[in-house]
Queue: 2 jobs
Job 1
Amino acid sequence: MLDQLKMPARNYLNNGHGLASWLLTKDHKRIAIMYLISISVMFFLGGLFAVGIRLELATPAGDFVQAGTYNKFFTAHGVIMVFFFLIPSIPAVLGNFLIPPMIGAKDLAFPRINLISLYIYWIGGVFTLYAMLSGGVDTGWTFYTPYSATGSNSNVVPVALGIFIAGFSSILTGLNFIVTIHRMRAPGMTWFRLPLFVWAHYATSLVQVLGTPVIAITIVMLAVERGLGFGIFDPSRGGDPVLFQHLFWFYSHPAVYIMILPALGVQSELISTFSRKTIFGYSFVAFSSVAIAVFGFIVWAHHMFVSGISTYAAMVFSFLSFSVAIPSALKVFNWAATLYKGAISFETPMLYAYGFMGLFTIGGLTGLFLATLGMDIHLHDTYFVVAHFHYIMVGGAIMGYLGGLHFWWPKITGRMYSEFFSRIAAILVFVGFNLTFFPQFVVGYLGMPRRYHSYPDEMQVLNVLSSAGASVLGLGYLLPAIYLVWSLKKGEVAGPNPWGASGLEWQTQSPPLTENFVEVPIVDREPYEYEHVAAKEKHLV
Amino acid sequence: MSGHVSPISLYITIFMALMVLTVATVGAAFVDLGQFNFLVAMIIAGFKATLVIWYFMHVKYASKLTKLTVATGIFFLAILLGLFLVDYGSKAFTQMPPFLS
Amino acid sequence: MSNVAAHADDRGHAHAHHPALQHHFDTMAQQKEAAVVGMWVFLLTEILFFGGLFAAYMVYRIWYFDAFAEASRSLSLFWGGLNTAVLIGSSLTMAMAVRCAQTNKRTATVNWLILTMILGAVFLGVKVIEYADKFEHHHVPGYNFQWAAAHEAPAAGEHAVAASEGAAAAEGHRELSLTPAQLQLTTQIYFSLYFTMTGLHALHMIIGIGIMLVITRMAYKGKFDQEYYTPVEMAGLYWHFVDIVWIFLFPLLYLVERHV
């Protein structure tokens, strides 16, 4: 049915061979591939620790590992997943690859800084992994003082330093994107012709640049307190432990927006492509990304309602936390309005998008429960919180990442993967995810605390469901690792635009040239104008 | 295209102003203004910083984007300090914190 | 002296442009503007980086004002004031260096950069003197910290408060509402912040001097002209920022309460 498509003779993958041509590259696309491999390794490692957690929690007694070891498991899981997987994932892989072609540029503004950000990520990752595997850290990824400063006997400073180093990778990526989006757009590519993916990454970059330095300085203060005996957070030296929490969460709350905003951008691209309609309310969706980024900076103390902040502050932060839900909800409504009377279909990326809409909504709504002061007294530090953030981070961010990876895979590699296996994997991920995390809402509400390796007997059924779900989820994640790699050599050649999608990146060959464009494109179209794009190379059988 | 070249006399003037303001801030510290000592010191420091940013760092002659970037940094620093005060300012400062009594 | 060169790129187009133009940019102006905005975005991160320390300082200064006032008085106003003048002077010399690069004066650029580095080194030398003094007076937290008030340590018992009050009045100090034990804890917080803030600032200065060494060498080799002096300007922006941090550190650390 299709013409015999051939891989383009000259593309960024065969432009230079050998390790040096990759390790010393300035090509944003090659850097994106190297990030892809790195974060996949980290995801697997973080997942291993999750397996350890779920194995322990399959039985009520703490019989798999000792409590101290269990503490190290969930700390490792959190540190790796947050700092070394989720935060870089979409920006460093999809953002790095796609932002220049999407705006009509040949590369990011600072290609060498892009490469340095990758090296810094590697150094931070190796540092942290070494510290975690040679003894580990038992403080939780939140490192609360005074335990982390003076109580714990574990490798706090090396892990903290590893996170500090990795933070620079995040900052440099954000810096690069901000300057690129401001100053490297092709002629005619005005702000309101940008794909929403780009708006989302712009907002994410603002958060990366403004938030990460605060956790960096917090880590410095923790390190000098622990290493040099300074007094900053430890009460026995005159310090205030709540100050640490304020400083930590000033970054770590916006950090969750670093993790979700890019996925929200991917979602807009998927919904519009696979309903063949322009996004409903484009400018509202664009502004909502920036609003989420800005509002995200003024809500952090909702993590501290029971820590000893004043009642007045608690009320202020609770109210502000409700307001940040508004731009998020706006996106969900606009996606629904886009789907309405659209020509919707069910390719794999769209399956992830459908899943994202439901799971992100549940995650977001449960966030409102937690933002309600009275409810939070009951729910704080229970599995309800754990379920809430996994719905957003896994049901939202990771599904957004996988949806985007599947959507742009043909552009990145020039090949299509097996639609059959990819749909099975998407369904396994959705089913496995809900089986893992929905019971956690229930046990959390029933009072099961987080970060404990044992629990009352009557909660076992729900925990076993959760652990069973985790194996289904794990299988769902394993499948793409197999069929995506398989497609590199055996997949059908994709051609420039297998989905019939709009966007400058689809007007180039797959895989793209090193310089992306033969000639600088001149943009005269609004985004998502589906009547202009021929669907002649739609891949579906 | 080269950027705006400032005359040497401007730099000297700004330098002298900064030195005068430094003397002023030290002098003001020796006058008992109660609560206002801190405010005066911060206003003078803020003014000095503005002179450095505007003239030495050439922001006066820079693009709107550059100016917006500077303003954004100051804005978010204000959020950091201001919202910290929402908590710490609504707790009692008149007594020592309990862990120090 | 113009550095325009003509060459063909890998697509066979011959075009003339400054050798420093990177090919993903269209013009030198775009490249320079990107660099300036990029450097300012980086300085934003530095504002928030130091900002966290300022936030901690703010909290503890309000809580432990008396301790901060006492501890601040123990700092040398002479050295602090001198350092402030030195650093502002180095900002002047740095601005002159950028100006000479802008106007294509190679030797003058190098000289002003060297002068800036010398002034930076003077600043660091003074800091060494101040730090050494802290070690001597047991004002280093975690190492040998012992806060002895300016007057003698009070005798035990309830006469202690009265004795120190009397001594305080005699020396012109304000009556303090903190016990010596509380002072020990709270002044330690002050000095922890003092060392962290000035130490981080000094580290930034050392890095700045390092950057300037590289830039000076580039200037010496004639790499800059009126079309391309961006690295000098970037170094200048960084150095001025470090100056601004000190402009705030000086009153916050040295001038908490000098009028008693």
Job 2
Amino acid sequence: MEQVEILVLVLSFLILLTLGVPVAFSLGLSGLFTLIIAMDTLTALTTLAQRIGTAVDSFTLLAIPFFILAGQLMNQGGIARRLIDFAKALVGSFPGGLAFVNILACMLFGAIAGSAVASASAIGGSMVERMENEGYPRPFSAAVNITASTTGLIIPPSNILIVYALASGGLSIGALFLAGYVPGIIMGASLMVVAGWLSKKYEIGHGEKFNFKTLWVTFWGAMPSLTLLIIVIGGIVIGFFTATEASAVAVFYTLVLILIYKEINFKRLVKAILETVNTTAIVLFLVGTSMALSWVMSYEYIPQNFTQFMLGISDHPIIILLLINAILLFIGIFMDMTPAVLIFTPIFLPVVVELGMDPVHFGIVMVTNLCIGLCTPPVGTVLFVGCGIAGIKIEQVLKPLLPFFIALLISLLAITFVPELSLWLPRLFGF
Amino acid sequence: MIDKAHRYLIRGLEVVLITLMVIIVIVVCWQVFSRFILEFPSSYTDELSRFLLIWITMLGASYASGRNSHLAIDILQGKLKGKSRGKLQILIQLFILIFSISVLVVGGSYLVWITFSLRQISAALGLPMGWVYISIPVSGILVSFFSLNSIRGLISKPSKPH
């Protein structure tokens, strides 16, 4: 009987997803079909409605719309441009200078805006042209931009880590944020190595001369945006305010910033709010139906059974971790990050905790995996946006993407098997 | 006529959602301000902002439905052309309709009825929780309307992409 219900759950979800039913509705419907078998219909319907409602009833989740709004406001103004100028002064002198600039600007902007899609469009939008003017082929620039955009999801503040904190049952957001720094920087650095090597090999983009004065000037230009990071992360880490309060401060700070830069008018402000509401509702409705399905799964004892199943295959941590990485990479290929984190955290976390892995470390591993999935077809939002911005077809970018993928996969292995990379910084701050 | 209603509903939702979003920003900023500057944390802002968030999510979900902006994997739709594409789109809308009527409208209404009849009241504001959960059936009705209207449009002009 139980097996039938699990089969219904998995099959109905896969079929609905393939047909093109919106992900949030596919999640809710597969939960519905399963629960109808298990209990009487009205109870099933009411339980699901209640799970959706209570899932969103969370002060922590409130940080998500605020960080989205702050990102939307940043997108309007010259903040991306100032960060690019600063990145150019800092790393523009390396071989393959502009590729380095692209990567660093994505890391900085992604950290502030908290969205890989936003950094792919904001940074990509102005970098692809500049890179083409200096002889970089468009597909190469797009590949750099697409892979670099995902690093901002691990470098804090990060909405997806807030979602993970929720799914894992209340891990410290401060600890997760701090844990993201080193892995995010490793990913960015590995991309730079590949970009530098390729630029040298094909002799493109000889960097400009390093100029300390330019660095100083652009640093002050980027300073106000970077200060936001210090206020938000510093405030959360010291325990001065919660992630939600920090996100509200971020909105307030950004509003003041764009008022000073005079780069927004009423109409664009309204548009930014509307886009925020739309994105927020899509993400939080996904949270609602994911949590409802997750409840159905625990009702069916799926996490417990999965833990037994996995530990039955092997009790060797390395093999289990490699297996989980492979499954997560596969999930990331066809599923969006938010539902993937909400649904698979309760399933995978007990397995790795059993093996002695730190939940904070696992969160970083999981998000890194899913980040890589964002730049793979068939479902790669960042891939689509990056190609759209560069004006090239997806088939054109696949070949130049490959070396960058390999770099990300090697970083992933390092992040998985060297826990200190994630845990060193949070421990330093006493988490 | 119905398309006009669709457009007015979208516009109306935009106005309501923007207003709610501005209020929620003010409420949380006020919470930070009252905690750090005035040094008396306000007790009701936490609850108020959570309830507003539920309303924003549920109304916003119907808004996203009306704009057709929910995340979906559209590979199959891209592969099909003409009539079969239209049929697939109708099927997708039917699934959305099943979920919104059964879970959101029926399940949500029953949930509201239970919380009202149990007189479940929120801790800080003393607000009957039914007023929070009623956002679920309201959203369900709106999603159902948008989805029925899409189906109607697809039947009359099957080849036109939505």
